[in-house]
């Protein structure tokens, strides 16, 4: 059930995560913006794995703290971390087909729809 406190926690965490990502990206740790993005995404994946394991160990994946830190903070920091966690959990539960399907549809569909969005926008507004 969605509640106002949960919405506020996710929003607050998301704001902090987004600001953190912006600040880290602005530091220019690497010469390439792509390398900065990769470093941020991989850091987010490590952090979401650690936090999920801690919350799962203590049965708190449905807690306010989980929503603040995992859904909000890391969701704002990098959605890639959430993308990585979902198929890993599917594999851990023995749902290999579901996990592989999720990955193929997400990556293939995401790339295809991004490309389509660019093409449609260029057709509407010109190159």
Major sheet: none
How many extended strands? 0
Mean pLDDT: 91
Distance between the termini: 45 Å
Name the shape in a single word.
globular
Number of helices: 5
Regions with little confidence, pLDDT below 50 for 5+ residues:
none
Helix/strand-derived class?
mainly alpha
Assign a percent range to the helix content.
Answer: over 70%
* Residue share in β-strands: under 5%
Pattern of helices and strands: HHHHH
Q: Gyration radius, to the nearest Å?
A: 17 Å
Based on the structure, what is the oligomeric state of the protein chains? single chain
What structural keywords apply?
single chain, 127 residues, mainly alpha, 5 helices, 84% helix, 0% strand, globular
Set out the fold topology.
Blueprint: H1 4-27, H2 33-57, H3 64-77, H4 79-92, H5 96-125
Helix pairs in contact: 1-3, 2-3, 2-4, 3-4, 4-5
Describe the structure in your own words.
The protein has 127 residues and is mainly α. Helices cover 84% and strands 0% of the residues. The model has no long low-confidence stretch (mean pLDDT 91).
Summarize the structure.
Helices cover 84% and strands 0% of the residues. It has 5 helices and no strands. The relative contact order is 0.12.
